[in-house]
Design goal:
By secondary structure, this protein is α/β, with parallel strands linked by helices. It has ten helices and seven strands. Strand 5, helix 7 and strand 6 form a beta-alpha-beta unit. The longest helix is centred in the N-terminal third of the chain and has 18 residues.
Length: 266
């Protein structure tokens, strides 16, 4: 019998799951999309993360007196985001799971700036927090404060946005640029079109947000309805942002009252 080395060495003979060239091929894009959903979903379920509070904001707003050059005159928002992460983690349920389920866990995009600060606030009080990182041409490094076991990396912006939204009980947007605007309007659109349950959305720094986005002009033009603005709130510091969430009904939910994934609409 001739040997069968050529057959065993052929790429066709590799098990599909261990064939990197096959998995990374264009035809397997849908499979990779599913894998990106399933890996994070499974780990979050293992940790009992039922609901999150998503914190959005610029990667360029750095810690006051830090060595990195950040957005000019905006460094105090790093401190407020850190304070907000601490407040939510202490008062929202992340530190006190009920029936093995954690509510209102801080979730961010995992990078530096405002995201780092919110993860850091949770870290300060010993609470878990989530980092949904994205693979970029100029690689984004995960910040050192998200819980290592809850620090994920995505290739797809779409799947990352799904995970940011699917467990969210609220979204809080600190000042930011294109990425923050994209994520803020993604959540607003999901709520407006009822593709997701209605959740409170708080924009921190009213003067910034009303200057960057003229919401009144949208209303006056009739391109949005007054009802579309009811989920949108404003605050000027971390404590006020938390008070707005409380006023909207956010709290550490009982087991029977917390929304499940089936309620998200995603």
């Amino acid at each position: 019998m001739p040997d069968n080395d050529l057959q065993k060495l052929s790429p066709a003979y590799r098990l599909p799951a261990s064939d990197t060239d096959f998995i990374l091929s264009d035809s397997m894009q849908g499979v990779r999309f599913l894998l990106e959903f399933a890996k994070a979903d499974e780990r979050l379920r293992q940790w009992g993360v039922r609901t999150t509070i998503v914190v959005l904001g610029s990667a360029r707003i750095r810690e006051p007196n830090g060595h990195a050059h950040g957005a000019a005159g905006m460094s105090h928002w790093y401190d407020e985001s850190r304070r907000f992460g601490r407040i939510v983690s202490e008062r929202g349920g992340a530190l006190a799971p009920i029936g093995g389920q954690r509510d209102n866990v801080i979730a961010t995009g995992g990078g530096p700036g405002i995201m780092e600060a919110a993860n850091r606030g949770a870290f300060d009080v010993g609470a878990p927090s989530i980092g949904f990182n994205i693979e970029l041409p100029r690689e984004q490094e995960p910040n050192p404060y998200s819980t290592p076991e809850l620090t994920f990396q995505f290739h797809s912006f779409a799947m990352r946005k799904i995970h940011l939204a699917i467990r969210a009980s609220a979204a809080v947007a600190f000042p930011g640029g294109f990425g923050t605007l994209a994520e803020l309007f993604e959540v607003l659109t999901l709520v407006q079109t009822r593709k997701a349950r209605s959740i409170p959305i708080v924009c921190v720094d009213r003067s910034y947000w009303t200057k960057v986005v003229d919401f009144d002009a949208l209303l006056d033009a009739g391109v949005i309805a007054p009802a579309d603005m009811r989920v949108l709130r404003f605050a000027d510091d971390a404590e006020e942002a938390w008070e707005e969430l409380l006023d909207a009904g956010i709290r550490s939910a009982d087991v029977d009252e917390a929304p499940g994934l089936a309620d998200s609409g995603l």
